[in-house]
Structures are given as structure tokens and as C-alpha cells.
Amino acid sequence: MLVALFIFAPAVPAVAAAPVAISGTAKCLNSMPVGVWIEAESSTSGFAEWKTPIVVGGLTSAKYKFNLDRGGRYAVHVGCGGSAEDWALDLPSDWVDGNKNNFVCNDIHPALSAAAGAVLKKLGKARAALAQGIPYGTCVTR
Q1: How confident is the model at residue 11 (pLDDT cuts 50, 70, 90)?
Q2: Is 5 within the bounds of a domain?
Q3: Is the pTM of this model over 0.85?
């Protein structure tokens, strides 16, 4: 005897992800940050609101903020050098979670880094890690 058992469960409507406000800083190692684009995995992508504070004697950080309308992971694209309308370099990050992330972007061309290392060696100075271990053309969280 074959008996079939069917269980009917009421359908549960999908719940939309809640909006998430994200923020943080973005730094370029060699030039001024000129813009921040948020690439959203499950939300609408767009330019972040940002402002660059004046920093004397250090790297310039751009503070950014953006609303992910449906939450989720995101990546940043930081404009290093150039202008807000015409970025010299567009440096991407990996996908990140969380509502606060700070990024450091390596826009120091390998030839420039090598030349600086040679000068420091000639001066008898320890070789500086100008790129701070960040691959050229990328941004990492710090």
C-alpha cells in the first residue's frame, strides 16, 4: 500500500531587506581622493556623498556616506587624482559587509615605488614600503 502525504504550508511573502547607511574613509597613497562610487551587490549603486578634510603632514582622507536601499554587500571605487569629473585612476575594493569601512588605495605606480626605493638605498636609508603591502591599483580595508 502506497500512501502519499502532502503538507501544505502557507506561503510566506519575501521580506525586503532594510536600508543600511554606510560610511567610512577612503585614502589614496599618492594623490588626492576625488570621488567615491559605491557598487552595491543587491542595492542601487551610485556616487557617495563625500568630503575631503584638509590634512597637514599626512594622507588626505575622503569621508564618504551612502544609503544602500536594500542593504547587502558593497565595493568602493575610489577616484585617485584628477578631478571629480575625470578621475586619473579608478581603484576598486573587494566586496565588504558592515556599515563602516575605511579604505586605503594604492595609486603609487610600481616604477615610482622602485625609483624611490633606489634613491633611499643610495642614501643609505632603509627601504620604505611605500605601497604598504597593498597591490597596485586596488583598495583594501584598514
Answers
A1: low
A2: no
A3: no
